[in-house]
Design a protein that fits this description.
mainly beta, 1 helix, elongated
Length: 195
Amino acid sequence: MDKIKTAITLALVLLASFAFAQQKDSVKVHPNHYTLTVGAGWTHYINNLQNGDQNMKNNFAGVSFKFFWEPEYRLSLGVETGYYRLFRVSNQVTADTAVQADRVVVPFLLLARMRIIDHFYLGVGMGMAMITSKVSGFGEKIVTKTWSLSNYEVSGSYIYPLNKHLNVGGEIKVFDFGKLDDWMYSLQVLCAVRF
């Protein structure tokens, strides 16, 4: 009787180990990845200026840098920074005197991105931004730097893998700068390296 119990117990243990081993082999495991993304493209600034906007240029090129941690799930977490010129205002005061004002923003954001369907992602980010304003004219230059603490972005991107490590795609994103009460949107081409 003891031999029968031992044989049944041994058979159950072997059957269970084979079943779990087969299940583990049939499930595809995606290890963690990290992605470094560089984006460049067109930005447009939506301002709240009431006067003086007839001489304003608000279309510029911008660049962004992102670093993502991509676990095996759909959600990715990361950080973003970049360089965006919001506007430039130029005015000829006299025949030999011009006045110019520039505003540049450098965001520092925490990001969450989720893959919705293959190659298509939606993302949100929030964080700080350093805003640099520069005014020059009459032989003088004034530069001010301030921090905006309540900024966010919403983005949609399409990222296509060319091979195991290189991805390309495009992204549209909208920024809200809390300190300025202004908006900016951007269309960028992305190049990502996955490691």
